[in-house]
Design goal:
about 150 residues; alpha+beta; 3-stranded antiparallel β-sheet; two-stranded antiparallel ribbon; 5 strands; binds iron/sulfur cluster
Amino acid sequence: MTEDRPASANSDDPAAPWYREGLSFNCTQCGNCCTGGPGAVWVSDAEIEAIAAHLGENPLGFRTLHTRQIGGRRSLLEHANGDCVYLSPATRRCQIYEARPVQCRVWPFWPELLETPEAWQAASRRCPGIGRGDVIPLEAVEVAAAKMALK
Ligand code: SF4
């Protein structure tokens, strides 16, 4: 269970978000956020190039073989069960961690999870990193959320 709570009323700004005091998060590397679905892992052209370089593959070949078009964007492929194809079944670790897309880097600070304390609490049931460790300050949370909002 997360220890993050709606902020106490110690801010003078009535427009401050409920997580104005920051949010605790420390990834346990369980891999849960890379599983289940179906979903999409959005990748930009620059991210495709970075992942292809990390894997030693041709960017165009990588784009063709390992991504799919969804609307106007591209997503990494996933297995039929929704698991990311780059989650190692053996180690439960990301095989492209150093080159992972922004979407993965900024989890769990996605706008939809920050909308309400309830949404954050619901996410904590799948992500044991939520509510653990040091408090990530409001400013850093909002920078991460803004990056996700641009995806
Ligand atoms: S679900 Fe949470 S704790 Fe597990 S790997 Fe993903 S971010 Fe880390």
